[in-house]
Amino acid sequence: MASTASATLSWVSSSWLNNNHFLTKTMNSEATKFTEKTLFLTVVAQKKAKKTRKIILKEDVQELGKKGQLMDVKAGFYRNYLLPLGKAQIVTPSLLKEMKMEEERIEAEKNRVREEAQQLALIFETVGAFKVKRKGGKGKQIFGSVTAQDLVDIIKAQIQRDVDKRIVSIPEIRETGEYVAELKLHPEVTARIRLVVSAN
């Protein structure tokens, strides 16, 4: 009787242990699945947490960009570095509107300056030749040479226009004849004028 009770107890114990092992294994498996899901969700949340800000630079920032440039930067970089030093500001619709108006104003001013330069070039080119007289030497030789300053003075005398001698490109002139000088009135506009050099 005692051996039967012992066998029953033994069977019950081993059965309970086996069931408990199965339960533990199942719980561990569920815990692993739960952890994997949690880990996956955590990673996704970290990716969404990376935020950027659309800013405009108020001044040149080395290795980032030039003044007036629009760009996206990390929120922390803006908050901790650019904002405290006053190097940038957040882009707003009103700021974008102001920027667009300023760009249009600058573009209109550039067009006006270019058109003025084109009109001045037309005046220079329709005047005909500017005449320069120098003391003559042997043959076609003249004493001295004709310089950019000489041409500036002649333009002032003939058509009452002030020209900066730094924009004048003139060939070397040491004898009588006809030459072409260039006036760089604008980065996109160059006037070519004829220059007739004669001897006294």
From TrEMBL:
Entry keywords, A to Z: Chloroplast, Coiled coil, Plastid, Ribonucleoprotein, Ribosomal protein, RNA-binding, rRNA-binding, Transit peptide
Gene Ontology CC entries for this record: chloroplast; ribonucleoprotein complex; ribosome
InterPro entries in the cross-refs: Ribosomal_bL9, Ribosomal_bL9/RNase_H1_N, Ribosomal_bL9_bac/chp, Ribosomal_bL9_C, Ribosomal_bL9_C_sf, Ribosomal_bL9_N, Ribosomal_bL9_N_sf
Main location: plastid
Coiled-coil parts of chain: 96-123
Keyword Metal-binding: no
Domain Ribosomal protein L9: 65-92
A GO MF term: rRNA binding
Subcellular location(s) of the protein: Plastid, Chloroplast
Family statement drawn from the similarity comment of this UniProt entry: Belongs to the bacterial ribosomal protein bL9 family.
Protein name listed in UniProt: Large ribosomal subunit protein bL9c
